Amino acid sequence: QVQLVESGGGLVQPGGSLRLSCAASGTIFSWFVMAWYRQAPGKQRELVASIRGGDSTYYAHSVKGRFTISRDNAKNTVTLQMNSLKSEDTAVYYCNYQESWGQGTQVTVSS
Q: What is the mean pLDDT of the chain?
């Protein structure tokens, strides 16, 4: 069973940046996808970004060009660098690997 622990959320002003990290314990295979999802109040959970291996990435249209996902397979970590944040990025962000989910970390973008 893989356990995922997110960190790095918080309150930031519009236009600011945050860096989310996810540490995975257990057996992780680099060829399986690791991903970040988010869920805003009253909305469904949505895929934000994913990465397979070290460099095969996907981004939701709404975050493309602003967010960057990266992965350290040796350390079993995945990171989401979020720049130019907007109020609509406010949500709980979740790390995902196969059927495992982290507990979520709150990101609030507000002035």
A: 95
